[in-house]
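2024-03-11 09:14:02 INFO queue: dequeued item Fe2OG dioxygenase domain-containing protein, len=326
2024-03-11 09:14:02 INFO validating residues
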Amino acid sequence: MSPSKVETISTYEYPEETKERCFFYVVGHGFSDEEIRRQYALCEAFFDLPVEEKTKYLCDTAKGDFRGYKPRSTGKLATRDNDERYNIPKFTPEHERPHPQLIRDHWEEIRAFSLKIHNDVLLPLLRLFAYVLEIDEDYLVERHRYEAEGLEYLRYMKYHPRTAEVDAQIGNIWAKGHTDYNTLTFLFHQPIAGLQVQTPEGNWKYVKSPRDAIIVNIADALEFLSGGYLKSTVHRVVRPPEDQVNRPRLSLIYFARPEANILLKPVVSPLLQRLGLQAETEHFSHDVTAEEWARARIAKDHRFRTGLVDQREKEIIAGVNQKYYD
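2024-03-11 09:14:37 INFO prediction written
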């Protein structure tokens, strides 16, 4: 097997801290600056819509469904959740649902952008990881078919500025340290600082966001599938520097995820066998699919964010816990 099919992306660049649990950069990805700016313009325009319009498209996070609009928390819960999100799922029949006219007016443009991430960035990376794991180069690709059922989506996101007094109450942390629950997360250029990664020593470092690069992090599903060899990246968002703190922080993110029915069990890999990692590093008490893991994590987050529980819940599903890093 060779990584020949990976050549559609010309360069992979890693930040200085590359031991484990790191972000990495993809350049030569084929997206023009104009394409990315267009999506950010739609992102901004969506969040400028009246609240009563946006709330027509609420996602059902209580049931682990992130499709649609998630408002930020208000009142006593405002410190738990300071962002708005609009998640646009894969453009497949199972995800047919109402969208604001703004989104419908640019439907084909958004669809082309999403498909380009999946086909031209995600798939080559999956072949690269398969090469690293010494398995068939299409093994992971065949478990991330775009047309198959699954919860892959593009996200528009907006963090709202807060006063120094409010931020101080929560240690200036806008999003607590966490891992993502999908396969790979793609973050497009973000000019407002705030994203940090946790190093193996437990320190937090800012993640630079070059204008020509997509920031990528490994998430839970790929950690499970690789028997713990590929580590889910621990990251958080903090209050921006003072010269940026009064500006909204917009984000353009794509979450790639295995097909809904894929079991989160380690692939049979010569590399994992040699390293003694072929057994799961953390066992589910029974088989768990990618969709079950994602929905369980979303639902548990909903319970804390909306005040149904006062502490973040540890166990997610089947005896496997979510770790917290702040």
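2024-03-11 09:14:37 INFO annotate: Confidence is low (pLDDT under 50) at residues 1-19.
2024-03-11 09:14:38 INFO item closed
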